[in-house]
Amino acid sequence: MNRVRVGICGLGTVGSGVFNLLSTNGTEITRKTGRQIDVSLVGCRRDHPACDLSTTTVTRDIFDVVRSDDVDVVCELIGGTDVALDLVREAIAHGKHVVTANKALIAHHGESLFQLASEAGVSLKFEASIAGGIPIVKAVREGLAGNRINWLAGIINGTTNFILTEMENAGNRDFADVLKEAQDLGYAEADPTFDIEGIDAAHKLTILSSIAFGVPLNLAALYSEGFSAITVEDIRFASELGYRIKHLGITTRSEQGVELRVHPTLIEKSRMLAQVNGVMNAVMVGSDAAGETMYYGAGAGAGPTASSVVADIIDVARSDGQSGGVPEFGFIPQALETLPMVPMEETASCHYLRMRLLDKPGVLARISTILSQHDISIESMIQKDGKTGTAPVAIITDEIRESAINEAIAELEALAEVDGKISRIRVESF
Amino acid sequence: MNRVRVGICGLGTVGSGVFNLLSTNGTEITRKTGRQIDVSLVGCRRDHPACDLSTTTVTRDIFDVVRSDDVDVVCELIGGTDVALDLVREAIAHGKHVVTANKALIAHHGESLFQLASEAGVSLKFEASIAGGIPIVKAVREGLAGNRINWLAGIINGTTNFILTEMENAGNRDFADVLKEAQDLGYAEADPTFDIEGIDAAHKLTILSSIAFGVPLNLAALYSEGFSAITVEDIRFASELGYRIKHLGITTRSEQGVELRVHPTLIEKSRMLAQVNGVMNAVMVGSDAAGETMYYGAGAGAGPTASSVVADIIDVARSDGQSGGVPEFGFIPQALETLPMVPMEETASCHYLRMRLLDKPGVLARISTILSQHDISIESMIQKDGKTGTAPVAIITDEIRESAINEAIAELEALAEVDGKISRIRVESF
């Protein structure tokens, strides 16, 4: 194929971005590939105001795109896992290479789709599904291919990071208030559950874990915790103790097996991940030879996501329509290894605990005693003067298993001197 | 080629790292490539204590390696541009793929070597030549291939970054003192000229500029300034003004042409590049679709450099010995475009100026007048109490052409009220 004919399915923000990028940078892309890459067919229910479709063939049935003889590479940019699944399957069946930005599709159906693509001798690429414009899939799968990767930790949802950054910067705005602003700015959906509860991050982390360790996709085993319970008080205490709060996706591989978890996390202010603010994303990778490397950039938006979609199209073009030799998982399918998943109860972290204590003598001693009965040491502590007979206290513990800290928290909350629930956030040193 | 046979030329720190990494991660690498990749021949003048060569064939003549029928991929890890050039030429002539960590070789002879490789149908890869374990060549050439890249700015020499970080952290140690520590720690060479004067960074930046913009290598046009003149006082003033001093490689492309420069730079403390400390490296890339992305990691050392060498070997293995379709420059050779180089005199930056002024009335007014006669506005200024009849003053100007600031500095230094030379450092917002 000298000319590469791209079919775009879905002309929302990302689809329009891809359409426009291929047009704007057409000359530059030809300089890089020796080929003309252009859009031969667009399938969309309605046109998009950002796109000039006057010289492009448009169909209202996206399935026309995957069946067209005039398309070499199909871009699946409709999202979701129902129609998108049928669409990608049919594209592969018609011998088309597929490029997608759909993290849910890959996290849920990646394995079967990769299998179909492999049998059909086509590529199925998904760089844009994780961390927008950051070429993190390529970095893990190719750039670090000589390494044994031990862990990976990332800020992989821009909405949550925007809200946490704003809460920290303003110092007095609570979660609901900043969420509303994020919605007004278009950084958060009208129904923000997917972002806030960590489901979006869970999809991305599951894929990253598979390509980092060569394990099958295992979304069901992932532990996920949203961050709507984080208060301004937590952010202030964390800051005084030397930390920032970030919503992290973390996956590790050790002798015990694989950990896969998404939750709010305290990170020391001096660490690189603590510098990642607003809607920006970053992924830190810990590996045996390269050590710590980090990849930073915009995690969403038309331009950044289109950048990754087009990079995948260029990869297909450069490999001359061959599947290119890089397995979709980074590991050859027969080498995927099912490792034990470490149950959340058996993971270990340092912990931040915030509680309100009745202003009575000996209360701190009782807290310390209960913690030490569970083998939990206190690394640092801040106590504030309370105004209403209670004093807020924040504690950082040393590393302790979840099961032990859970038991300790339950015992502490049962104390008459502890007023209300205890806020708990894991502390990590990534 | 099912088995991939690697020949290593040079068994210093990097060569040993590659030898050991291929052995340690052999199983993991086979899971990723479906192939066995192992070292079939090592050419080195003397063995390295870190390597167990008991089961490996060793020759004392590195040219045996490039001529051997038992080698598919040659790793050139001897450094320098004399023997290394002959070695790589002969490897290509014998139909071997070549992987090198040699930035000087690529910066000086890349074009002719790429041409030879292309004619011979082999790959010549050099990820390890820039920023150690960071897969920056792959990110620019492939991950961002859909973008028009507008600028690139990096901390690409760990030695200089270590010295600047230590000077800042200690607060009272001068350049020579910290350089000695860096030498004792093995972070700086006995003759540190290559690092300190920016020659090493110049080699790397020249290569990055070519793959970012698709321009021919042009080391001769690069402006380079070392940082041995930076004093503790500069670091303190910069900090008070809200900046850190980093030694940056910067290349930009605009309508005026290409800028290519290495010099000390003030960067706002809140910027990501300002967080890169010690021997760590990072490259920030500004492009039209992805926006700002940054790549961070260890810039040197056995493990990180070996990580990139082995990634290149794996690329060769995965593409089944084909050249893989990614042009060495990122752009196809016939599309390389010679753009005008912007002379340093015509570039524009904000500037930091530090001077000692005699403690006399009206002296600041005279300074301001001279600056304003050259159309230079003062953005911020700090004046300290002097102890000996002179007062140190630091000024940040707005953006101004080099030629204008040079003239202004010459005029200011000629004033009787200005005691000694003026320290000048460019200020950038990357």
Notes on the structure:
The structure is a homodimer of 430-residue chains. Chain A is of the alpha/beta class. Chain A has 14 helices and 17 strands. Chain A has helices spanning 13-24, 26-33, 62-67, 83-93, 103-120, 136-143, 158-170, 175-184, 193-196, 199-213, 232-240, 302-318, 363-373, 402-414, and strands at residues 3-9, 36-43, 58-59, 73-76, 97-100, 124-125, 149-155, 223-224, 243-254, 257-268, 280-287, 291-298, 348-358, 378-383, 390-397, 400-401, 418-428. In chain A, strands 7, 8, 9, 10, 11, 12, 13, 14, 15, 16 and 17 form an eleven-stranded mixed beta sheet that branches. In chain A, strands 3-2-1-4-5-6 form a six-stranded parallel beta sheet, with helices on both faces. In chain A, helix 1 crosses helix 12 and helix 13 runs antiparallel to helix 14. Chains A and B meet through helix 1, helix 2, helix 6, strand 12 and helix 12 of A and helix 1, helix 2, helix 6, strand 12 and helix 12 of B. Strand 12 of chain A pairs antiparallel with strand 12 (291-298) of chain B.
